[in-house]
Amino acid sequence: MFAFTIRRLLFAIPTLLAISFIIFAILDLAPSDPTGNLPLTIPPEVRAQIRSSLGLDEPFPIRYALWLNQFFINEPLNMIEGWTGWTIGDGERLRVTSWATRSPVVDLIVERMPQTLWVVGMSQIIAILIAVPIGVISAYKQYSWFDQIGTFVSMLGFSIPTFFTGLVFIVLFSVHLKWFPSIYDTNHVIDSWSSFVFQIKQMIMPTMVLALATAAQLSRYMRASMLDNLQQDYVRTARAKGLSERVVVTIHVLRNSMIPVVTVIALNVPTIFGGAIITEQIFRVNGIGQLLIIGIQGADIPLVQTLTFIFAVLIVMFNLIADVLYGILDPRIRYE
Amino acid sequence: MRDTTAPLLDVAGLKTVFHTRSGDVHAVNSISFALEAGELVGVVGESGSGKSVTMMSLMDLLPRSAEIVGGEVLFEGRDVRGMTRAELLQLRGRDVGFVFQDPMTSLNPVFTVGRQITERLRKHMGMTKAEAKVRAAELLGLVGISDPERRLSDYPHQFSGGMRQRVMIAIALACDPKLLIADEPTTALDVTIQAQIIELVRDLRRKLDMGIIWITHDLGVVAGIADRVIVMYAGQIVEQGPVRDLFARPQHPYTRALLETLPKVTGERSERLHTIEGQPPSLGDEPTSCPFAPRCAHAFARCMTENPFRVDVGGGHDVACWWDPETGEMRDV
Ligand SMILES: Nc1ncnc2c1ncn2[C@@H]1O[C@H](COP(=O)(O)OP(=O)(O)O)[C@@H](O)[C@H]1O
Ligand SMILES: [Mg+2]
């Protein structure tokens, strides 16, 4: 299993390099000018100077190599320095810089990552907590009223986009009921019980919008997987051994049914980050989704390149995690 | 509470129906039979004749679409269908062992075989983890798996088909059952492994003294191990009797046809296998005529209007047929 994981990690490197090249090349083709948003009074010579100071005079391969060097070597070294307090070399390195703010892209991302991680992470946990029991009960009581209602509700959850649920939530819970704030206050500091309660309150809506959309999908997978396993021969063997229905379903069947579902959960995580882009816009959460939108609107190519690449890394990473989890859960894979 | 004069298992008028989208299927139609403690009964019949469904009905192990619509099942005189959930689990767990047809799918792929044996021992024998492990290794040894302690921590996919069926037998025997139900335990295995498993059960039977129901579609297997044979057709028992008597004087045309399909040990190898002409009936309705009549060379007019009841032909042997093979005439009943 360990060797398998290492091998998969090594395979991920060329994949990521290829992806980074494609992202860099495509965004480089975009007709964008970092000086485009500057006042018209700035003379062309100055504009040319700004462009060359950003390294845009160099040919494409050099710029790509520089970006690679900055992203894969300089930034990780900076992070290590930040965590450990050491100084590696002279500590002076070129960094990937945002055209719009002139600050290092990675700093911007690090600043905004926690908000996104909270919303995405919590929504995943809540989605799993909702979806697994619903899927199990729906399958065990197939065609019961519980199953019928579950099917109907998850169809709704499936087909209604998150921006719509988000708006409905705001209208209902913020405007009418006034339970939760409609705008996420990112500067909020938790230093007391009441501020903690406020934090929970402001997280509920963005988290639930994502959680419900994910749960709708996951509960279907869970149900299908349970139905598939409930009619397997080993279930009859378990019953014939005199085990109670509870043990048969929640231990024998559930354990087998989780194998494909866990894979789906892991593979689904990058999609949720994508979904977070929209949710963050609606609730004004200043996470990385919002950062990406700002970057695209401002034609901030380095920022967009880096964020897009980070999404690509997430996808590759969670693919790997899915494979490893599969191996851990299924002994038939583990022992190959 | 226990009735010591009662047979180990006494089944009367058992009826099971599947409710399917394309209508009901009457899979088991008024099955009655009894099994004495320590007796080995072979149940034979073509595929689809209701052997498995009958046995699943006994311990209520049917799929959700099936319903037991009538009949009585007594285990040592206790009414199984009237049992509480807890009593039924206790009966399944302690007193009855099942071995199913396909050893490749009958074990849970994600748990070690050790766990699949000890689970039962801990629940029904009240053993600790350590005691259960010792006993589980003993059981694997009993069914002829070498190096049992080590193999306890292996997963089912690490065993061959024959070895998995031995594991299934070990699970079935875990709590010293009074009754072992083996549903075509060797059908999915190749011939040499089949012979080994049969030998194993014959041997265990002597050691453990339990009642055994051995389901097979192979009369040859039954001849070697059974005390008594039940022949099933279309969800009914068409003939049953002591093994020697049944082979010596088969009564039902269906039994006779089954016997003819057996390869003759003495005959030349090239002798063509007889097969029975025609198809078994569909079971959409409960039969009101003899279900075998359409395939039968001896059917009378009465066979088309009335389903024959079982007639005693002496020596504990009975048959659900009006044709008398000795005279070729209708029986006088
Ligand atoms: N799950 C099911 N749904 C509907 N009909 C079934 C089902 N299982 C078995 N049957 C029907 O019950 C009859 C008896 O099947 P079974 O007991 O499995 O036969 P055997 O074990 O003798 O080969 C068959 O006609 C079959 O079509
Ligand atoms: Mg069968």
Automatic annotation (TrEMBL), chain A:
TM ranges: 9-30, 117-140, 152-176, 196-216, 261-283, 303-329
Example GO BP: transmembrane transport
Cellular location(s): Cell membrane
InterPro entries: BPD_transp_1_N, MetI-like, MetI-like_sf
Keyword Lipid metabolism: no
Superkingdom: Bacteria
Membrane topology: Multi-pass membrane protein
Any one cellular-component term (Gene Ontology): plasma membrane
Pfam family, one: BPD_transp_1_N
Membrane recorded as keyword: yes
Keyword terms: Cell membrane, Membrane, Transmembrane, Transmembrane helix, Transport
Domain ABC transmembrane type-1, chain residue ranges per copy: 113-322
Family affiliation: Belongs to the binding-protein-dependent transport system permease family.
Protein name: Peptide/nickel transport system permease protein
From TrEMBL, chain B:
ABC transporter domain residues: 12-259
Listed GO MF terms: ATP binding; ATP hydrolysis activity
Pfam families: ABC_tran, oligo_HPY
Residue ranges of coiled coil: none
Keywords: ATP-binding, Cell membrane, Membrane, Nucleotide-binding, Transport
PROSITE patterns tied to this protein: ABC_TRANSPORTER_1, ABC_TRANSPORTER_2
Subcellular location: Cell inner membrane
Gene Ontology biological-process annotations: peptide transport; transmembrane transport
Membrane topology: Peripheral membrane protein
InterPro entries: AAA+_ATPase, ABC_Ni/Peptide_Import, ABC_transporter-like_ATP-bd, ABC_transporter-like_CS, Oligopep_ABC_C, P-loop_NTPase
UniProt cross-references to CDD domains, sorted A to Z: ABC_NikE_OppD_transporters
Record-level GO cellular component terms: plasma membrane
Main location: membrane
Family: Belongs to the ABC transporter superfamily.
Name of the protein in question: Peptide/nickel transport system ATP-binding protein/oligopeptide transport system ATP-binding protein
Organism, scientific name: Pontivivens marinum
